[in-house]
From TrEMBL, chains A, B:
Transmembrane segments: none annotated. Belongs to the DinB family. It comes from the Bacteria. Pfam families: DinB. InterPro entries: DinB, DinB/YfiT-like. It comes from Paradesertivirga mongoliensis. This is DinB family protein. Keywords: Metal-binding.
Length: 168, 168
């Protein structure tokens, strides 16, 4: 096996398992985007919160941070589409961006050595933390906003896809 | 360092890091319970979804699965309070149950060897998977329902605690 750098720690989740976990969540979120009526995706809101299209763009922006983790070239927070308003206009465009990031993750992930996951990075020039924690933040933030999308859908009378289904 | 059993895998997240990640999320969820007005915690709903008190009881029931992982004695799904309606009646009672599980997690976690995280368990007699994946499911399910609570709170005009704050 490969070694990890912290001699006293017990490592319990593999690099391959974290990738599958992440992509499984992203497959579910993609289905949530798909099930939204086109207009509601871009307009529907509860309690002054953002439409799910903007949240989904945030998820794409954050997941695109995989390239920053690998090559150190991060977009700044102002350069992120969900922050500067450079948003897709249709569900189809949003899904194209979604799928591009899926491919980026698959491309960059094998370029990370196991040791890198414990190295500290400054994500998007603003958020400092170890790589594993930065990646968990991307995943957690996706689950958080997707959970909000479930409320939007339920309040529209639409049944969201089952939370536990993560396959293709 | 301790060894993991899969010779070809690169392990990237330590047992201590996963515990801190989980308890950090649980601290945030506890603050979300606290910020709910007492009556809304038990009654407020959007789109026919459950009040957050019932979701929070589900989170307590699932997190209590830590004892099942360690000693193999699982409650059945019918024995879980959120499923059989044996629910706390006040926020204070809910928080007592919350804090009891926090202590259980701290007690049981050190009893898990690193190897156990890759062993398959049948959680609550119903859900089969490796321990690491079962634990990630508990955490993800908490993030998911807490995200829904954020919509409940926003629709009530209440600002939820910041998602990224996980400390005490």
């Amino acid at each position: 096996m490969e070694t990890n750098q912290t001699a006293t720690a017990s490592y319990i989740i593999s690099q391959e398992q974290l990738l599958e976990h992440w992509q499984g969540h992203r497959r579910l979120t993609r289905r949530v985007i798909e099930v939204f009526p086109e207009d509601k995706l871009f307009s529907y809101s509860i309690g002054g919160m953002r439409p799910f299209s903007v949240m989904a763009m945030e998820l794409i922006d954050l997941a695109g941070g995989i390239s920053g983790i690998v090559n150190g070239e991060w977009k700044s927070t102002d350069e992120m589409s969900h922050a500067n308003g450079n948003l897709p206009k249709t569900k189809a465009e949003l899904l194209v961006l979604w799928d591009e990031v899926t491919e980026q993750i698959e491309k960059y992930w094998p370029q990370l050595s196991a040791e890198r996951f414990q190295e500290v990075v400054m994500a998007f020039g603003a958020y400092e933390g170890p790589v594993y924690s930065t990646l968990l933040y991307f995943i957690d933030n996706e689950i958080h906003h997707r959970g909000q999308a479930y409320v939007y859908l339920r309040s529209l009378g639409i049944t969201p896809p089952p939370f536990w289904e993560r396959g293709n």
